[in-house]
Write a structure and sequence with these properties.
The chain is α+β, with helices and mostly antiparallel strands and 452 residues long. It folds into two domains: 227 residues, MetI-like (MetI-like fold, Orthogonal Bundle); 130 residues, no CATH class. The protein contains 15 helices and nine strands. The radius of gyration is 38 Å and the shape is elongated.
């Protein structure tokens, strides 16, 4: 009797299906235990900020009054925001396109380089530099002062090699000493002169230590006698070191100004031109009788070429994009190079056997086969450039910050950089999120498709 009751009370033996269900349940619990910390971090660092920003975008600057969609309306009425959207569009179109093209070209060329690994390492090294450090580097490189900015130093060197530069940009004439300044910055004699005379053209504003090497005293040249058909003169520094001397007269210790262009004008037209010698002397020969004006053209006093204003309103966005290209070209090259290494070599060899040249192989075989990789690289870079902040904020100077601003920097400036309107800043953050999501979804689908 007791045995019968015990037999009836014992549970039925577990079937195979029950054991499988229990194993799956235990697996889910273990997986949840491992994933839970990551989910908590994801919720705290991503989901909560996103939801909070969406909610905050419907309130005013103080966060106390509900304003509905006013922030989104104001966002598209603000000229600074419109400019940020325009600059972001430029970034999205230009930077990923250039990077993908450069990465493709470099990946193909590196395969033909003997030291391919070292070359890849050099191109990839900027990825190890933080955006903050890269921004400081390029802020210095773009400096307008040729003595500081390496780019302008190179531009000025090339310009001066072909065009030359003025030797006396600070020189000027004394008032009431026989020279009159023209509207274009030139200097001409106040009173006309005739052949057979010697003219003294005294200038100031040039430091003695800034005189060209080889400059000689002008005293002897100022006392030479001119022939009847020639006009002589001397251009000199009307300044005596240590004081003394007489203004408007060539003293014994006053230096001539060499390599200066001098013109003789008659009836407003240039009839002769000369360049001063080491002692500042010049002469015009075979002049006809009549009155002449001696002029020092404005080119003698032109300020030195200062190079390109890389960080001016017109070029600041391309300049920042150039810094971005320097950092990310290695990334694009390595990813595309990995896809290139996985291409079927038999297709390339078959094309060569059929007589195709390297350009035809590249255009009709390599690029189509690399299309999935190129698309992934392009979309990844699109997502990245939409969030660019560090380079724009560091490289662009304060006066042109608004000309270079993108959505990420505009969001920060509106929220924390002086605007203190976190309602509008949150609306900008939501706009940026909405722009990034389609690219992220496209990229995830691409990855899933490549895995399948």
């Amino acid at each position: 009797m007791t045995a019968t009751l015990l037999k009836e009370a014992s549970p039925p033996p577990a079937t195979l299906a029950d054991r499988r269900r229990r194993a799956r349940r235990r697996g889910r619990i273990v997986a949840l235990a491992f994933v839970l910390p990551a989910l908590l971090l994801l919720g705290a660092l991503v989901v909560y900020p996103v939801l909070f920003s969406v909610g905050r975008s419907f309130f005013d600057a103080s966060g106390t009054r509900f304003v509905g969609g006013d922030n989104y309306t104001e966002m598209f009425r603000d000229p600074a925001t419109i400019k940020a959207v325009r600059n972001t569009a430029i970034w999205v179109v230009v930077a990923p396109t250039l990077l993908t093209g450069l990465g493709l070209v470099l990946a193909v060329l590196v395969e033909k380089v003997r030291w391919a690994t070292a070359f890849k390492l050099l191109l990839f090294m900027p990825m190890a530099v933080s955006f903050l450090a890269a921004g400081i580097i390029f802020r210095l490189a773009y400096d307008e002062d040729p003595d500081k900015g390496v780019l302008n130093a190179a531009v000025v060197s090339v310009h001066d090699a072909f065009t030359g530069t003025s030797t006396y940009p600070t020189a000027r004439a004394r008032d009431g000493q026989g020279l009159t300044e023209g509207a274009d910055g030139s200097y001409g004699t106040t009173a006309p002169t005739t052949p057979g005379h010697t003219v003294g053209l005294g200038l100031v504003g040039v430091l003695p230590e800034d005189l060209p090497q080889g400059a000689r005293p002008a005293y002897a040249a100022a006392r030479r006698t001119a022939a009847s058909d020639e006009l002589r003169g001397v251009v000199y520094l009307d300044f005596t070191r240590g004081g003394g001397g007489e203004q408007g007269r060539t003293d014994r210790n006053e230096s001539g100004l060499p390599e200066m262009t001098v013109e003789a004008l008659r009836d407003g037209h240039t009839v002769a031109s000369a360049t001063t010698a080491a002692d500042g002397s010049f002469r015009f020969q075979d002049l006809g009788p009549g009155s002449y004006t001696v002029r020092l053209p404005a080119s003698n006093f032109a300020p030195p070429y200062e190079g390109v204003s890389w960080l001016g309103p017109a070029l600041v966005t391309p300049a920042v994009i150039g810094a971005y290209l320097w950092i990310w070209t290695g990334f694009a090259m390595v990813l595309i190079g990995a896809g290139l290494a996985a291409l079927p070599r038999d297709a390339l060899e078959a094309a060569r056997m059929d007589g195709a040249n390297e350009w035809q192989i590249f255009r009709r075989i390599t690029v189509p086969l690399l299309a999935p990789v190129l698309t992934v690289v392009f979309v990844t870079l699109v997502i990245n450039v939409m969030k660019v902040f560090d380079l724009v904020y560091i490289i662009a100077p304060g006066p042109v910050q608004e000309d270079a601003t993108v959505l990420a920097t505009q969001m920060w400036l509106v929220s924390f950089g002086g605007g203190n309107n976190q309602g509008l800043g949150s609306a900008l953050g939501v706009l940026l999120l909405l722009l990034v999501i389609p690219a992220m979804v496209f990229n995830v689908r691409r990855f899933r498709g490549s895995q399948r």
